[in-house]
Each structure stands twice: as structure tokens, then as C-alpha cells.
Amino acid sequence: MIFHTILSIISIRFPLDDEFGVRLYSCLMEDCIFCKIAHGEIPARNIYEDDEVLAFHDVSPQAPIHFLVIPKRHIRNIMETDDSLLLGKLLYQAQKLAAALGCAENGARFVINCKFDGGQTVDHLHIHVLGGRPLAWPPG
Ligand code: AMP
Fold first, then answer.
1. Is 13 within a domain?
2. Measured from the CA of 118, which atom of ligand 1 is nearest?
3. What value does the mean pLDDT of the chain take?
4. What's the 13 CA to ligand 1 centre distance in angstroms?
5. CA-CA distance, 64 to 9, in Å (whole number)?
6. The model's pTM
7. Nearest to 97 by CA among 56, 133, 126
8. Is 128 a catalytic residue?
9. For burial by CB atoms within 10 Å, which of 74, 76, 79, 135 has the most?
10. 46: Cβ–Cβ under 8 A, 6 or more apart, which residues?
């Protein structure tokens, strides 16, 4: 809790689109596995990368196609950002990559788990894209 309060204060002092702020923030988030993937510190099967967005295959796929789209900077979950441009970019890449990987005809599922009730296990915003088979509904 104290840790996240400190991070919030830092994010106000160093806005997240400020390069120094992003680097400082990333250092402080050294325990975040998706930050480490975003910075190339641990390997992943990357599909797409630009300045702000990274997509990579899920390490434990739940469908023939299962990849994740993340912001490179640390955002804990979908509730914790007002950056509508970045959210749009994440969704745009999820849609484009789903089509590129063969989901255009039959579709796919785009999922964002958030916090405890949403079943989020990695505290770094990510969009799951699942495709390649029919998926059941509702979720458990
Ligand atoms: P969630 O439960 O929505 O937070 O999803 C986290 C997802 O991250 C799960 O589907 C995991 O399989 C996936 N995951 C965890 N660690 C890695 C990793 N090192 N590389 C790729 N995917 C990962």
C-alpha cells in the first residue's frame, strides 16, 4: 500500500509520458513480470512492438491462439488509467493482430481481467486475445 502511494506521488511529479518518469517508474516496478518482458529482461514470444505497445504469446495458452497486448509502461489495471489514446492503441493492435493471426473470419475473444473479482493475476494491464476455437460463455 505504501509502495503504491509512493508510486502515485512519483507519477504526479513525473507524468508518465515523460521519459524520465517512465524509466523511474519502470525501475520501481522491478518485480513486475510484464515490465521485465517489455524491457527485454526476460524472454517472451513477441508478436508486435512499438514505442508504447507490446504483444506476445501467452505462456499458458487457453486456445490455439492466445496472446496478450500490454502497454510498455506500468499500468496496474484498466481502472488505473485515463489515457484514452493508449487504451485505443491497445485495442487497435489487439484487433489488428487477431486478424493477422487468422481470427478475422471466425472471430476471437478480447478479455481484460481486472483486480480480484475480475481474476487478474498479473498486475500490469493486458488484453487477452483468444481464438482458433469456439469459446464457452458465461465465464466461471
Ligand atoms: P490474468 O490472469 O488476466 O492476469 O492473465 C495473466 C496471463 O499472463 C496468464 O494468461 C498467464 O499465462 C500469462 N503469463 C504469465 N507470465 C507470462 C510470461 N512470462 N509470458 C507470457 N505470458 C505470461
1. no
2. 3
3. 88
4. 31
5. 42
6. 0.84
7. 56
8. no
9. 74
10. 54, 55, 56
Residue 1 pLDDT > 50: no
Domain range enclosing 105: 44-131
Is 115 domain-assigned?
yes
From residue 103, give the alpha-carbon distance in Å to each of 70, 113, 129, 135. 19, 21, 10, 13
Closest atom of ligand 1 to 60 CA is 12
CATH number of the CATH domain containing 79: 3.30.428.10
Report which ligand 1 atom has the smallest distance to the Cα of 111.
3
pLDDT of residue 115: 98
pLDDT digits (tens, 9 = 90+) for 50-95: 999 999 999 999 999 999 999 999 999 999 999 999 999 999 999 9
Q: How many domains does the chain have?
A: 1
The pLDDT confidence band at residue 12, using thresholds 50, 70 and 90, is very low
Instruction: Output the CA 59–ligand 1 centroid distance in Å.
Output: 6
| CB of 33 shorter than 6 A to ligand 1 | yes
Sign of CA dihedral 120, 118, 125, 43: positive
pLDDT of res. 37? 98
Question: Is the C-beta atom of 119 inside 6 A of ligand 1?
Answer: yes
* In-domain check, residue 3: no
